[in-house]
Amino acid sequence: MPPVIAFSHRGKMREAEMAGEVLSHTQQWQQLLALVLAATVVMGSPGPATISVTAVGAAFGLRDSLRYASGVIVGTIAVLLVVATGIMAVLASMPRLAPLLAIASAAYILYLAYKIGTAPPLAARESGADRPTFLGGFLLAVANPKAYVAIAAVLAGASSGAGDLGIPARLAVLASMIVAIHALWLLAGRHSPASCASRWLRGSSIWCSRQRWC
After folding, report:
1. DSSP the chain
2. Transmembrane segments in this chain: where (predicted)?
């Protein structure tokens, strides 16, 4: 093969390789975007864990809710690992497990609603015993049936597409989304109208007491 033709052939091969690399990176970014959108819609929708985080944030404030929200986040990430490692398939073979999880989740939500209803923010800040705990958030997340279904649906959708986005990358993205989603729900509760009104009334009562008007 003449040198000119050989050089031209190598140049075309190099161009083809570069085009393949660009296409591969484009597919990875498309998969990443699709995964984030699916997680936002499916995992970010209202459920027992997200609603409880919002309610706790509204009732107890941001600082006193961090332990509970952290427990929910860690518990949901544990569910993610259970689903991703195939343990979910073993759990699914136990038909009585799903109703038990639903009952446990509903029972704790009712208990949490009672605590929120009987412990206003001012009392919650004065008494740490009434604050939701890390363990409570973790147990609610682990017993939340919606978490298993949503995470399994997102992982199944991500696995069905072709591309090079591996399992570790998917898990890292979904774990980051779990943190972001629950943080946003917590902030939504913290800045809800009820929470703002409660903080305003608390500040007014403190100001009045200092002025000895109340």
Report:
1. --HHHHHHHHHHHHHHHHHHHHHHHHHHHHHHHHHHHHIIIIISS--HHHHHHHHHHHHHHHHHHHHHHHHHHHHHHHHHHHHHTTHHHHHHT-TTHHHHHHHHHHHHHHHHHHHHHH--HHHHHH-GGGSPPHHHHHHHHHT-HHHHHHHHHHHHHHHHS-SS--HHHHHHHHHHHHHHHHHHHHHHHHTSHHHHHHHHHHHHHHHHHHHT--
2. 32-60, 72-91, 97-114, 134-155, 167-188
